[in-house]
Amino acid sequence: MKKPDTFKKITLLLTLVVLLPALFYSVYEINSLTRSEELIAEIYAQQLDAILYSLNQHTLDIVNSWASNISTLIEDRRSVSREHLQGAFDQFFQRNPSVRAVFFADTLLNAIRVLTRQEGSGATPLDQARFLEELRRHRVDIERLSRYRRADYRKIETIGIPGTDTAESDVALLFVSNDRSGNSSLAGVVIKERAFVRAVLAPKLLEAASGEFIIAVMKKGEQQPVFATDSLMQGGLRQKKDLWLIHDHEVGIRLKGATIEELIRARFYRNLGLIVLLDLVLIAGVWIVYRNIRRALELVRLKSDFVSNVSHELRTPLSLIRMFAETLEMGRVQSEQRKQEYYATIVRETERLTRLVNNILDFSKMEAGKKKYQFTDIDLNGVVSSVLNTYSYHLQSEGFTPLVTLEPHLPSIRADTEAVTEAIVNVLDNAVKYSGAEKYLRVCTGMSDGFAFVEVEDHGIGIAPEHQQRVFETFYRVSSGLVHNTRGSGLGLALVKHIMLAHNGSTTVYSAAGKGSTFRLLFPLTSEVSSHAKAAR
User: Fold this and answer.
1) Does 479 score more than 60 pLDDT?
2) Does residue 373 lie within any of the structural domains?
3) Number of domains in the chain
């Protein structure tokens, strides 16, 4: 119960200390980014509005300057000759090529006078009667202009001129002017829309764009701009405003290259990606810390089990040795045969103790990287026969009669005799411990794919697939069934793995739960093993 509780505490602690603050920070940053981007977009929209407003104001200033010039000329028309007046208006036309005609009339619209360009421009003359009729349809607008003028404010009104057959649409810009006597008169100009945009607005548009924006004037309902400071192929206009004086036209603007919306969106997603990446790094770090702590706790548990198992392993043979030695010392055994049995038990348990202590010492040297191997040419069959002969009594006392098959033409290998002996003994000891009721043991040697091998097979309890690779880990023991009930240090197979890696060999296991296991130790036949090889960690 302690292990799950400890893991739960660690998980909760890491979540509270790292993950929750990271999550709160991420949410806060995302909200801050969103508010910042909205503020930037709002400021940008206000700047665009200011630019568009200045363009409209520029247009109005130009037309107001025209109105002032025309008002001055109208006031002087009684004091100068007709020819001089026409000459003055000709100069006005020359300065303003987008103006097609100038007109003035009384505010009651009883009569009208239209002055047009004298040079041949190819434009069709205005139909004065139809034009006057069109003005009369706008009496309400003209009366409003008169009221504004009486309040000493000059307002300009725009009306369309239907019925012209010119290549460009025309509009009339109306205003009311007062002479020196205080009499009001209606005046205005007729302009060509496209020419007005190109001649009057284009310089201001280029100045406002400053190489950073694309500004264009569009006629409503048309796809192609009347004028644009740059190509619109890379995207449409993001913000549009109607022109004040040319009602069927609008001026639009966008940032050159990527739009501000696109830049804001790209910046938002870039920052969001960095935040997500930071969170992933934190989560990965937490997982690594959690995994390392879990492994450390698992190692502590395994070491605790190891101490317990080794203590039991030491206690059992020591108890037997002491019991039989005391019995012999007190002379309670009279039969010579019984004495020999007691002596044999003492020797067997002493060998068991020696093997356990050697395993612990060897493992300690291997872990410290201090284990030295003396590599010589050895006969693997001879080593296997020597091990079986040494432990024959132990095997027989456990009820085993090993089936031994040795490859007669097995070549010598480059190895450390003592280390190979220890590896074979540990595999045999493992087979004996976990054989269960069926006392089957097969030992054989052979060659396969450039390797010489020793194979030990038993019909014991077997190893489940999920445990087959972990049984070679230090202190690892399967904690279920007979394996859990059988005492051991958990070092035997770990030592075997170290020894085989030091010999450039390997260990394989073929096993099925309830059907037994087959361990094979593979030694290379052709490659030499360095005499300075260290045990692999």
Assistant:
1) no
2) yes
3) 1
